[in-house]
C-alpha cells in the first residue's frame, strides 16, 4: 500500500434520484462544475455518469458524456473515470458505449453479477419530482446487475485496446476471485485498482470485519500488484473510507455513494465530501496523492491520450 491516499469522487451515479436531494447534479453544466470543484478540493480521480438534463434519468449515450468530459478535462488535471455500470435497464452495449467512444484513462468494471436493490428508498421519499423515479426504484426489487464472465471479457478487450485501465468494482468476496481469474488469463495487467464496495442491499454488508476480510483476500490473490480503494453506501461512507486509509488504502466519496455530509445533514456538493475526507486524512497524517501521482501509481496512459 502507498503512503499517499488517492481520493476518488463519484459525482452523480445512477443510483440516487433527484427527489432524494436538491444538490444531486443532473445537467452537463452541473456535473462539470461539481467535478471541477471536487478536483480543486483534492480529488485525483473523478468517476462519472451522465443523466438526462430534463429529469435526471441515467443516460448512457456518448453524446451526453461529451457535453461535460471536454469541459472537465480543460479545467482540471484530474483522472477522468467513465462508468461501464451505467444504470438499471441498460443493455450491455449501452453500458459500454461511452467508455468505448471516449477512451478515458480509467473505466469502472463490475467484477460480477449480483442483486442491486434500491427499493427501500421509496418509503423515505414523500413526494417524487419525476414519474420515472418510483418505477426505477421499485423495479430494483427484481433487478440483477449483470456482468457475466463473457460480458466482463467483452469490456476488458474493448477498452484495453485503447489503453484504458480499470477501477475494478468488487461488491463481494467472490468478485475478487473473478478478477484473479482474468489476471491468470493475462487479460489485465498490474497494478490493479481494486474498489471494494460495502452497504449495497444484495452485496457484502457494511461491517468492518468484511473490509478486513476483503483486504486480506486481495493481499493473498494480488500481493503487491494492487491498490486497495474503498467506498460505502450512505451513512457508512466516511467511517469505511477512513478505515481504508488507516489500513494504507485509498478512498472514494461523492454523491453517487452518499447524499449526506453527516447525520441528518445533506451534502450541498461533492466538494463538501472531498474536503471532509481530506481534513480527516490530514489529521491522521496521511498525505493526499495529486492527479499525476495517482497516474504514476495506477500507470494510466495520461490525459493527452484520451478520446475527448
Automatic annotation (TrEMBL):
Recorded GO MF terms: 3-keto-5-aminohexanoate cleavage activity; metal ion binding
UniProt cross-references to InterPro entries, sorted A to Z: Aldolase_TIM, BKACE
Matching Pfam families: BKACE
Required cofactor(s): Zn(2+)
UniProtKB keywords: Metal-binding, Transferase, Zinc
Designated name of the protein: 3-keto-5-aminohexanoate cleavage protein
Provenance organism: Gemmobacter aquaticus
Amino acid at each position: 500500500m502507498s503512503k499517499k491516499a488517492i481520493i476518488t469522487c463519484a459525482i452523480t451515479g445512477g443510483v440516487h434520484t433527484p427527489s432524494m436531494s436538491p444538490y444531486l447534479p443532473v445537467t452537463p453544466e452541473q456535473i462539470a462544475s461539481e467535478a471541477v470543484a471536487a478536483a480543486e478540493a483534492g480529488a485525483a480521480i473523478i468517476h462519472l455518469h451522465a443523466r438526462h438534463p430534463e429529469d435526471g434519468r441515467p443516460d448512457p449515450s456518448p453524446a451526453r458524456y461529451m457535453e461535460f468530459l471536454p469541459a472537465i478535462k480543460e479545467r482540471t488535471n484530474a483522472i477522468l473515470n467513465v462508468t461501464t455500470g451505467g444504470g438499471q435497464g441498460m443493455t450491455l452495449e449501452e453500458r459500454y458505449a461511452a467508455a468505448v467512444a471516449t477512451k478515458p484513462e480509467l473505466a469502472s468494471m463490475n467484477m460480477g453479477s449480483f442483486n442491486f436493490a434500491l427499493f427501500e428508498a421509496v418509503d423515505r421519499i414523500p413526494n417524487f419530482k419525476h414519474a420515472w423515479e418510483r418505477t426505477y426504484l421499485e423495479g430494483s426489487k427484481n433487478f440483477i446487475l449483470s456482468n457475466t464472465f463473457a460480458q466482463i471479457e467483452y469490456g476488458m478487450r474493448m477498452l484495453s485496446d485503447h489503453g484504458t485501465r480499470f477501477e475494478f468494482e468488487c461488491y463481494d468476496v467472490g468478485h475478487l476471485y473473478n478478477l484473479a481469474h482474468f489476471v491468470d488469463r493475462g487479460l489485465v495487467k498490474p497494478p490493479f485498482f481494486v474498489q471494494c464496495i460495502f452497504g449495497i442491499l444484495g452485496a457484502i454488508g457494511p461491517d468492518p470485519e468484511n473490509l478486513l476480510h476483503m483486504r486480506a483476500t486481495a493481499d493473498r490473490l494480488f500481493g503487491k500488484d494492487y491498490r486497495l480503494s474503498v467506498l460505502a453506501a450512505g451513512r457508512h461512507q466516511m467511517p469505511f473510507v477512513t478505515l481504508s486509509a488507516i489500513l494504507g488504502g485509498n478512498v472514494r466519496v461523492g454523491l453517487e455513494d452518499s447524499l449526506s455530509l453527516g447525520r441528518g445533514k445533506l451534502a450541498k456538493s461533492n466538494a463538501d465530501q472531498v474536503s471532509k475526507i481530506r481534513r480527516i486524512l490530514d489529521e491522521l497524517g496521511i498525505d493526499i496523492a495529486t492527479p499525476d501521482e495517482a497516474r504514476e501509481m495506477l500507470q494510466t496512459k495520461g490525459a493527452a491520450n484520451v478520446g475527448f
